Amino acid sequence: MAEKELKKIFDSESACTLVSELRKTFNTGKTKSYEWRVSQLKNLQKLIEEHEKEIIEALQTDLAKPEAEIHVGEIGMLKSSLKTALNELRNWMMPEKVKTSMTTFPSSAEILPEPLGVTLVISAWNYPILLSIDPMIGAIAAGNAVVLKPSEVAPASSSFLAKYLGEYMDSSAIRVVEGAIPETTALLEQKWDKIFYTGNGRIGRIVMGAAAKHLTPVALELGGKCPVIVDSVINLQVATRRIIGGKWAFNNGQACVSADYIITTKEFAPKLIDSLKHEIETCFGTNPIESKDISRIINSNHFDRLSKLLDDEKVSGKIVCGGQRDKSCLRIAPTILLDVPEDSLIMNEEIFGPLLPILTVDKIEDSFDIVTSKEKPLAAYLFTNKNKLKDEFVRTISAGGTVINDISLHLAVHTLPFGGVGESGTGSYHGKFSFDAFSHKKAVLYRSFTGDASVRYPPYSNGKVRMLKALINGSILGIILALFKLSKD
């Protein structure tokens, strides 16, 4: 192997050197300043504004994403995140004044957000630009050094990120490492101050296992089977459009908050299916597999995985809409399946594609039992006009987030935390939650040399013990009584 090729290999030694260099930068205090943080966020803003065309080209190369979806789901989301961070950063960085207790009187206290240090962001392929840069915004805003590992499954996007982040960002504190399993493994062997991973539970376990060796905190943004409960008391056309928008017009179902399966009543299912068929044709034409307004499957491996779900003998006869496939162009039409068995493959793994099973129940309230019998999803959705059903849904269903009468829009609200629970992940981000995800909330207590009470020091008398108990309990009357008795001791 030529010497030039040897230099390109990124192994454990390379990763160790990289982390060491970034830690040296972090230890200078450079990344902690407000000015540095703002300059890097503005550089990200500039990068996105000046290279929208290249972002669109990369995403269309990797996923054949429609341009409108790119602007809304990737570029627009990033611009919004950056605007929020730049507008709010000074407030986020301010210490939070908090009350103190009698035990420490006289004193003052505050909570100071400080950066964690050198952080690692491992991104996903389904929204390869958004899910790379969005966590970085939080890490930079919080004052950290950052290494980004983009997904090799979206190579055009990975190449874009490596090239332009290298040009626009401060390379002494922000780096990109491209590659696959060997490079990710080398990175995970190092000691980080925070690892932020977006992807599936299988890799999430590997990330958490590697982090545990160094007691490194992790944020895992995973997924799960996101249910959609559809009541009959709804605006059917609006509900149907929103389901389509949250499934097939949302990276063709290749999204962690995508509708994974529907539950409705046996009586209402035919009306819902007819409406879905009609609106699918309205959105994507009579032959949706040829539509330019729908993303393709990311690669042949995922195409084969989805085909396996469809070819399962337990569900192959359950298709009521779609099912067409073309491996040559990695396209699968929007597909609806009715009354698939709960022990089928499609109901026991996250679909992450354009297949949508419908389960039926006698009463809509019975749907809650189905959802709660499974692992907690990243998101759960309900369509209804019944206030009682809404309240019961929010109280009963544990999920990373819930939305009533729409799908996935909660991730666009920066005042809401976005993250999972249980198998769907740990930790959250977006808006200030991104800043918090990469910050340590340091407790700071200020005291002067006045007000030093001998009661806290040995030797301890009964009176001192009474006084200490009163102080800890915060009882004014107890303190008065203890002082009175102490004066008599």
From TrEMBL:
It comes from the Eukaryota. GO terms for cellular component: cytoplasm. The active site is at residues 221, 256. Residues 18-444 form the Aldehyde dehydrogenase domain. It catalyses: an aldehyde + NAD(+) + H2O = a carboxylate + NADH + 2 H(+). PANTHER family: ALDEHYDE DEHYDROGENASE, ALDEHYDE DEHYDROGENASE TYPE III, ISOFORM Q. This is Aldehyde dehydrogenase. The lineage of its organism: Eukaryota, Viridiplantae, Streptophyta, Embryophyta, Tracheophyta.
